[in-house]
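Q: Start with the shorter request: fold the first protein.
A: Done. Sequence, then structure:
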Amino acid sequence: MSLYAPLDVRVVTPRLELVGASDEMLGLLAPLVRDGGAMADPPPWDDPCSFYDEDPDRRVEGWLRGVWRGRGTVTAERWRLYFAVVVDGEPVGEQDLIGHDFGTFGTVETSSWLAPSARGQGVGVEMRAAILHLAFVGLGAAEARSEAAIDNVASNGVSERLGYVRDGTSWATHQGKPVLGQQWRLVRDAWEANRRQDIELSGVEACRTALGVEPRPSRD
């Protein structure tokens, strides 16, 4: 048990585990960030993004500051949960869940990165499925959203495979260049139609209290 309830949340699937990104877990992920393992082409949708800093130490420092800032910013308007993705006991990436005016709209967004060694094996789909289970079952979300560059085949493929529908496009600036992003939306009923029964949650009730999230009806 940690001193901060959101760090005690666990999401377990047959293939992997999402573990609250404590400083200990961040320390295990840091070598991946330092070595450029969090980089991708096309780049992550978050921008500015420290992953693309040429200096490895600044890259890690910027990433850590972002996580610490996000963990400490919990308001009715916005909160963010950070998880290490653990496969066979080895941290291989990060999966985040973000709430925007969650109490009013029940909307969440997801953000993630995955080490090159774990890509192309279905891990991306599994970690998104895991975080969606936490969102819809654990927190009672009404809808989940995602966004990726139009040419980010991997990220867009995960959204399509998990039942999201295209929901327009938007422009953003990444690494100083304009990038067209594909927006995706997954409503609760669509998620329920393909809901998995092999994903387990723990530590959610105390996390809801810490975030000020009221339990929403869940069709268990």
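Q: Next, the second protein, separately.
A: Sequence, then structure:
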Amino acid sequence: MTEHPPAPRGPLTRTIADLRGSDGPTLICTGGVHGNEPAGIHAAREVARKLHALGSSGTAPAWRGRFVAMVGNVAACNAADPTLRYIERDLNRLVTPEEIRRARALPPSERHAEQQELLELIDAINETIADSPHATTLLDLHTVSSPSPAFAYAEDSLPARQLGRSLGLPLVLGFEEELSGLLADYTTSELGVLSLVVEAGTHTDPASVSVHEAAIWTVLETQGMIDSANDAARFDVAQRLRTAAGRRAGRVFDIRQRVPVGSPPLEMLDSAQAFTRVWKGLTRVATRHRPDRTETLRAPADGLLFMPNRQPRKRPEDDAFFVLRPVWGRLMWVSARLRAMPMAHRLLAALPGVRRADEHSLHIDPSIAAVMARDVLHLFGYRVLRGTPAPYHRPWTRVAMACIALPRALFRSLGGRRANPAEVWIVRRHRLDL
């Protein structure tokens, strides 16, 4: 049955739609977490309209579960300026337990706009989860500022990988170590909700709406809420996603490095396009205009340029761009097998420079567990919670670093010396892998 039909068009409120079919799981869709990204809101409205019609048609079976669609940053989405991303702070960098506690401790009159949005959004999500007797999934819908194939990203846990790959889009892993405060990371790591982010295209491209709609229908089918995505959507959703993904459909990538905008802000070169190949120290990607000179920034790592920032207004803490590398498919298979083997995790904890903190966490001495530590930890399904992993290097550089690191590691191990506690990494297995 349907509880609330889709919200009317006009000034936005938090809830776009809250629909119920027969008994089943819950899907929460969030759109407009950034004020200049309305495509997810339009797509969620269209899906809600079709689900409402499907539930009212009298055909059996109709659909199962609960579909809830929310606006992320209502204040920014209702602003007069359609290019406004956020009012004071990026909401999608605030969603951490610490920021939530800090916002709750303030009187409402002292909270800035995004602190109020944060509390209202998290409370709405928590209420939905608490009222859902079955599994809940969150789908966060975004668009980008620079032309790019559509893609998805998720934390590097096995359930999130599986859901992300069901879309057939390029899947990007590793954001949770480069950026704090992501909504999808909070709902996954803190609330235990399977979460996925879809970036459908550019902010102003009308096609981004249909890409988001296709992604929502695919997740509804994957989670068992509808029998056929194509029948419910009334178009070929897989073909729509394949077209949006282009030649990178189904590929998996890992974040290598993030570069912030800084001050004065970096300006991306016209040649710096998403998913183009870049070489460390060689490929020119951006410029920084200082009062007395113009600096040229070259790629900080080998890989593929990702999400070059072409927002009309940038702040120093925003992301200028990322560098990705492809993930070998066979390595994904090996990783899945290792994560399921308790003995493998016991052996990992017994390696030099590794010490078990609790059942699912490790302390890593980076001066002993050198060179490949981050790659190995990812293979076993651990994420770095505290620490600053060294930048990724080319293979021959790693060999040279290993030759230097091994004698130092042996000396420290034999001498029984421990690293400075401030230098020790804290790593933990992904919650959904447990």
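Q: Describe the second briefly.
A: Residues 395-415 form the longest helix (21 residues). The longest strand covers residues 22-31.
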